[in-house]
Structures are given as C-alpha cells and as structure tokens.
Amino acid sequence: MELVFECGLAVALVVRLFGHCRQAFYQSKADIETEIEHERKVIDAVKDIRGEDPGIGGYKLRLMLIEMFGRGFVPGRDRFFVLLRRKGLMLPKPKPRHTTNSNHRYHKYNNLTKDIVVTAANQLWVADITYIALAGGDVCYLHLITDAYSHKIVGWKLAKSLKAAISIEALKMAVEQAVSMSGSESLKGLIHHSDRGVQYCCDAYVAALKAYDISISMCEDYKPTDNAIAERTNGIIKVECLYRQKQLHTYEYMQNLIPNFIHFYNYHRLHMSIGYKTPAVVHFEQGLQERKWKNKIYSQKQTENENNVVSLQSRTNSMGEGVCQRI
C-alpha cells in the first residue's frame, strides 16, 4: 500500500508485481481500516477508565475491558501492551514518596492480627491516615478504614485536620455499613487494626470502638508490613490517582476527586489479592479468596545481605541516630 499511496504507483501495476489481484488489494485496505477503527475503540475505552483511575496498570485494564465488552473485543495480552506502548499509554515507574510519624503518651494495644485468617467481611478492619499535597504548599488528610477481607474502603473522611474527631467520622461510616449487614448494634468478633497514632489511641476513639464491642489491635514494630493492607490502599490511591495529576489542586478539587476514585476503587477496580474481583462483590462473599500473586522467593545470598542490613540498622539505632516512627 505504501507503493500506491506514497509512491503514487498504479494499483494494477503493484498487484501484478506481488502476484495478487485488485480485489485482494482493496480487501486488505478494508481490513486495515477496520483494524484501525477497532484499535481506536479500544483506546477510547482505555482512556475512559484512565479518566477514573489514571494509574491503573495495563493488565487490569485488559481484564476490565474483557469484562465490559467480551473477550473478542480485546486484543491478546502482548498485542494489547504493544498498542498501549504505541499510543503512549504505558505507565512510567512511580516515584516513591514517604511520610513521617509522631509519638504520644496514650496506651498502645497489642497486635491481634498475627497469623489471623479472615473468611468474611467485617472480621478485620485496617485503619490509616495518608496526607495529600495541595497547591501552594497546603496539605489535607485522608482518614481511611479498609475491610481486610474484601479490601473495600468501608469508612473514609477527607479533611484539613489530623484530629481524632475526623478519624471517628470515618469509623462511624464503617460501623454503619457493618451494623446494616449484621442487623446488630454489637460488632463483637470484629478487630480494628491500626498503627499507634494518637488518633487511634486517644480516649475518644477507643471509647467509640468499645461502644460496639470492637476489639482493638495495633502495630508493634513500626513496620509498614504490620499494616500492609492499609498501606496498600494508601498506595493505590496515591500512585494510581493522586500522583497522576498533572498539577497540584485545591482542597475543593480533592473533595470531588477522592469520592469519585473511592467509588471506582470499591466498585470497578479489580484486585489481584481477591482473585481479580472488585471489593464490592467480595464484601458479600465468604470463604478464602484466591490471590493472583506469589511471594517473591529470595536466594540465600539475598537473605544474608538483608540480615546484614537489618543488623547494621539496629546498631545505628542503639547509637542514638534512630529512625522516624510511623503514626
């Protein structure tokens, strides 16, 4: 076709050179145009999803398109990735960002989640607070409660404050859905797990938990892995939504963006850890969920190197250099 459209040669001459008929030329032209139109529809659908979740990965995009339009609509995995790459829609590697934490004088509770296995919603909640940078150097905070079984965000509150009263509002939202599901004001058997931040240890928050017979559990070692599901929820919101914004926005803008993304997260985003299903679906299921990822297997040499690093950090901490603790 390049010989015809770019070099200006006659169709009859070109098809004779390659041993084909004129019908084959026009059929090939029609097939290419059909393929281009189909790719355009796929890309438009991808852009619609990315409009809700700018940082969602290619693999989940493909699964969502299959669920929406059927397997025949979506190209194969490798071809789909090639299409995304050709259209500049492959995501760059995210830049890591970190938060710092503070200490307080309130009672800190033991970790009740070690080796726990959840088999239904509202057995274990994980809570955390993450900051959101705004234009002009301002900051707001997103108070979150996530159900560990379904990974559904069951309680949340966006505010300019870190006050415990804001965290309690997020807790009330989570409690309302749990009471509605169970039909009882008592949520005995439910564990609320969080870090040791002052918001979760203060008298008002603890009293709110005890009012519904909710057991209290907290991280003990100040490691992100002690509250991994909460950290993962924070990471998804930041990496797939907030970090993809082309510029920092106002608090008023975030009041519209965050609710929309949380709705997408709960009702449309597929999660590997629950078998590529949405949290809203899993929230009403029971039994173990099939996770679609595997733990990384480290070699003996890697393990020895990590142990050496941990040993060195421990000696450094004992010398008074310390590390910032998480809220």
Automatic annotation (TrEMBL):
<dbReference type="InterPro" id="IPR001584">
    <property type="entry name" value="Integrase_cat-core"/>
</dbReference>
<dbReference type="InterPro" id="IPR012337">
    <property type="entry name" value="RNaseH-like_sf"/>
</dbReference>
<dbReference type="Pfam" id="PF13333">
    <property type="entry name" value="rve_2"/>
</dbReference>
<dbReference type="GO" id="GO:0003676">
    <property type="term" value="F:nucleic acid binding"/>
</dbReference>
<dbReference type="InterPro" id="IPR036397">
    <property type="entry name" value="RNaseH_sf"/>
</dbReference>
<dbReference type="InterPro" id="IPR050900">
    <property type="entry name" value="Transposase_IS3/IS150/IS904"/>
</dbReference>
<dbReference type="InterPro" id="IPR048020">
    <property type="entry name" value="Transpos_IS3"/>
</dbReference>
<feature type="domain" description="Integrase catalytic">
    <location>
        <begin position="117"/>
        <end position="287"/>
    </location>
</feature>
<dbReference type="Pfam" id="PF00665">
    <property type="entry name" value="rve"/>
</dbReference>
<dbReference type="GO" id="GO:0015074">
    <property type="term" value="P:DNA integration"/>
</dbReference>
<protein>
    <submittedName>
        <fullName>Transposase InsO and inactivated derivatives</fullName>
    </submittedName>
</protein>
